[in-house]
Q: What sequence folds into this?
């Protein structure tokens, strides 16, 4: 969040159906002079998996045209039809019109990632009469249709690979790992994609194989965070015009140029196939987070932009990943990530409110083809240097309404209530998948020194809030072992203390109170006993007094 993610792999971390393809009417008063209106209602791969059908509603005054409606294909980086004379399909005008055309899957003419517009021909040029629209069911062509691996509990942890035994003893069900997108191109692995050969770094991929297979091989649900750092050797992966920034850790993905789109698509497709679970030696990724905390460009830098153009550029890239992933493994889940600044720290140039990001992302998707996107959220205490979140309203940044500057564990139901509104639901009418993938509680205080009991109490309270909330699927705590760099900044998040004489190396030394609480908290037999100590710290008599719909209320004394 406001700390550097250390290491490459495990560290640091409307209404339903019709919105799936709804777009606004566009008249030629806006885009031309032929007086035609068109709305793309659906853009779907057929059950034969070889063809695409686009359905539109249309009000046509074809005067000044050749009397034909055309469907024209555009690449994600294309914004107009200048100079175009080709088309994907054509039809006679009518109040409802259907176009069908080949998908051309796995060829240089592959249309899986394309967008489409309705146009008319005025004798010299195409005039667009609809908004662009993408295919919205890439899962139709997925080879892997295995159900999502939903663990029995929501308990997760950012772990150290050399402490897998400890994680297994703790009963970790969810785990996250980082993938450095900008380090994948290289030599050693050749990959064919849509008629081209791409080359990937064999040693880098081997490291990910070992990490991911070790985690998924233990039955853990693996969440991967795809991060695009700066690499002078891979300029096509950086959004055009972006300058290297000393304050940016990661950068916007590039699908705004032909070269950027080609390389991004190929890498995304390779990762989706590699970690589909088909090969146990590579492992299985089930959740994919595209970028990190995108409401703050420190983690997704492209330079000063208004929120609409920023989110549009991000969504263009997100959709490429989404399409690559869902067309490989139909039931994988794809997320974008926010920090806890819901309506806070906003300049609308490089920092945006989380609420505005959600609204803008959803609005653009409604227009261009809705997806089954999910939300990854980071509800750290405010401030992060103190573990007690239950008094965070005293900061003036926490309220119980949608205008709250910050949403964290203190007002977590505000987030899920917001996401449960009909306009934000998924294309199937369900509340979107929400996972908490980076949060922790420090065991040290600048004013009080060591406070491991308070850390443990904060985790117990926060876990109960998540466990009792039906709209949150996972809670991945940061971290298994303290990181020295974070400890020096006053953040001791670990279940274990670390050695402070090994530089930045993470070496576990001693368990904290939170270790046992973490181990037992999702076990009916032990959960209330292991968290009893926390009530006096928080100042409560019963968990059900402060945890809405407390899961263990029936056995609470």
A:
């Amino acid at each position: 969040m406001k700390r550097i993610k250390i290491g490459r792999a495990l560290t640091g971390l409307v209404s339903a159906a019709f919105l799936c393809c709804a777009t606004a009417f566009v008249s030629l008063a806006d885009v031309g002079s032929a007086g035609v209106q068109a709305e793309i209602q659906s853009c779907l791969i057929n059950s034969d998996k070889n063809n695409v059908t686009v359905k539109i509603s249309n009000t046509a005054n074809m005067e000044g045209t050749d009397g034909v409606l055309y469907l024209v294909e555009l690449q994600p980086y294309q914004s107009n039809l200048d100079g175009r004379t080709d088309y994907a399909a054509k039809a006679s005008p009518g109040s409802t019109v259907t176009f069908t055309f080949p998908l051309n899957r796995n060829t240089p003419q592959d249309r899986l990632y394309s967008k489409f517009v309705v146009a008319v021909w005025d004798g010299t040029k195409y005039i667009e009469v609809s908004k662009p629209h993408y295919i919205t069911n890439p899962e139709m062509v997925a080879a892997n249709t295995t159900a999502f691996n939903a663990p029995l509990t929501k308990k997760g942890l950012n772990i150290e690979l050399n402490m897998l035994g400890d994680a297994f003893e703790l009963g970790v069900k969810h785990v996250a790992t980082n993938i450095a997108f900008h380090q994948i191109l290289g030599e050693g692995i050749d990959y064919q994609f849509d008629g081209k050969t791409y080359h990937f770094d064999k040693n880098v991929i081997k490291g990910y194989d070992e990490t991911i297979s070790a985690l998924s091989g233990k039955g853990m649900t693996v969440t991967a965070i795809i991060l695009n750092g700066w690499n002078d050797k891979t300029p096509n992966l950086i959004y055009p015009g972006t300058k290297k920034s000393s304050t940016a850790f990661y950068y916007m993905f590039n699908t705004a140029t032909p070269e950027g789109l080609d390389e991004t698509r190929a890498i995304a497709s390779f990762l989706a196939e590699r970690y589909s679970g088909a090969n146990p030696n590579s492992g299985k990724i089930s959740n994919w987070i595209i970028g990190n905390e995108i409401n703050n460009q420190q983690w997704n830098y492209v330079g000063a932009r208004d929120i609409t153009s920023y989110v549009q550029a991000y969504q263009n890239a997100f959709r490429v990943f989404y399409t690559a992933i869902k067309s490989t493994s139909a039931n994988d889940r794809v997320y974008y990530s926010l920090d806890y600044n819901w309506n806070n720290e906003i300049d609308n140039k490089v920092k945006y409110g989380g609420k505005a990001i959600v609204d803008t992302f959803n609005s653009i998707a409604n227009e261009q083809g809705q997806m089954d996107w999910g939300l990854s959220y980071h509800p750290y205490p405010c401030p992060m240097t103190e573990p007690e979140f239950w008094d965070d309203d005293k900061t003036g940044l926490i309220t119980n309404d949608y205008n709250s500057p910050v949403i964290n564990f203190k007002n977590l139901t505000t987030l899920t209530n917001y996401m449960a509104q009909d306009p934000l639901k998924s294309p199937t009418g369900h509340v979107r998948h929400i996972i908490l993938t980076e949060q922790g509680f420090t065991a040290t205080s600048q004013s009080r020194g060591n406070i491991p009991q308070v850390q443990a109490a904060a985790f117990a309270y926060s876990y109960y809030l998540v466990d009792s909330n039906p709209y949150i699927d996972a809670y991945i705590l940061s971290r298994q072992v303290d990181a020295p760099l974070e400890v020096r900044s006053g953040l001791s998040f670990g279940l274990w203390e670390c050695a402070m004489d090994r530089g930045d190396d993470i070496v576990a030394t001693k368990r904290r109170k939170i270790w046992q609480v973490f181990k037992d908290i999702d076990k009916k037999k032990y959960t209330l006993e292991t968290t009893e100590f926390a009530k006096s710290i928080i100042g409560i008599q019963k968990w059900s007094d402060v945890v809405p719909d407390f899961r263990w209320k029936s056995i609470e004394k």
